[in-house]
Amino acid sequence: MQVVTTIAELRAQLAPLRQSGRTIGFVPTMGYLHRGHEALVRAARQECDVVVVSIFVNPLQFGPTEDFESYPRDSEHDRAILSAARADFLFQPAVEEIYPRPLVTEVAVPELSHSLEGRTRPTHFKGVATVVLKLLHIVWPDRAYFGQKDGQQVAVVRRLLSDLDLPIELRVVPTVREDDGLALSSRNVYLSPDERQVAPLLHKVLVRGREAAQAGSDGPTVQAAMEALLRQEPLVRLDYAAVVDPDSMQPKHELTGRVMLAIAAYVGKTRLIDNLVLDL
User: Fold this and answer.
1) What is the rounded CA–CA span in Å between residue 53 and residue 88?
2) CB neighbours of 264 closer than 8 A, spacing ≥ 6?
């Protein structure tokens, strides 16, 4: 695996591979990798000739009170995981490489960005969309790989690719979970032992919501049931539970077709998110 730190070097390395007709798969990450990221890399490895992974903790998607400085980082661990998963290139730029001067250009997908995560983190998806577009233009892959755990981010990226006519295929990889159902996340490291025991409740609530939806309940009823179950646990503080269309992020009343059950909650001081996508 080659480690590249500058845009110019990465473009120089990828240009002849692209010109020779080799397909390029791209996995953007913020590092502190786990089995969920590994699943993205392995999916790209199966489908593409060349696999590029980026590690970049993007300051634009952190709010002023969020954990940019304390966000977990472990470069040696990350490189070991990527080597084992057979990535070809690790693009690990400094902040100054991606943002050499203050940005006056921003990318926003407002229709999909103001609900759910956007209510709590109003600048988050503008930062996500901006850095994703920059990285896609740097790598220019055939396919880009994202995890379903960040379901709203998937919707934002899908719309970004469609609206801007980018000829890049979006590949969405299912959420990877611990044996007790907890979705893998870099932020799980913040959980105390007691909080870690409680955290799988988020997935249990989603499963209960799925059962209610499959039994014929409407969207508001499913949402209310999920909220009530979460509020029974004193270590958990609900941010939102929602029943939405997974493409538009709009609430769904009649539950037919594709439906996303989404949840965000604080377990202690750690904010976790999870979702399930249903076909009804």
Assistant:
1) 8
2) 116, 117, 120, 239, 240, 271, 272, 273
Measure Cα distances from 102 to 31, 67, 96, 98, 195 in Å: 24, 21, 10, 10, 39
| 193-243 per-position pLDDT tens digit | 999 999 999 999 999 999 999 999 999 999 999 999 999 999 999 999 999
- Only one residue has tokens 């969020």, namely 66
Q: For the domain with range 2-173, which CATH number is right: 3.40.50.620, 3.20.20.140, 2.70.130.10, 3.30.450.40?
A: 3.40.50.620
Distance CA 60, CA 43 (A): 28
Among this protein's residues, is 37 annotated catalytic?
A: yes
Q: Which residues contact 259 (CB under 8 A, 6 or more apart)?
A: 213, 219, 243, 244, 245, 246, 252, 277, 278, 279, 280
Domain ranges of the chain: 2-173, 186-274
pTM for this predicted structure: 0.96
Parallel, antiparallel, or unpaired: how do β-strands 258-267 and 270-279 relate? antiparallel
Q: Which two tokens stand for residue 279?
A: 């076909």
Q: Give me the catalytic one of 37, 114, 137, 253.
A: 37
**Angle ∠(46,47,51) on CA atoms, nearest 5:** 85
What are the φ and ψ backbone dihedral angles of 229, each rounded to 5 degrees?
A: -65, -40
Residues 6+ apart with CB under 8 A from 267: 191, 195, 198, 199, 202, 235, 236
Pair type for strands 24-29 and 50-55? parallel
Classify the C-alpha dihedral 114-118-122-127 as positive or negative.
negative
Is the domain spanning 186-274 CATH 3.30.2280.10? The answer is: no
SS3 222: helix
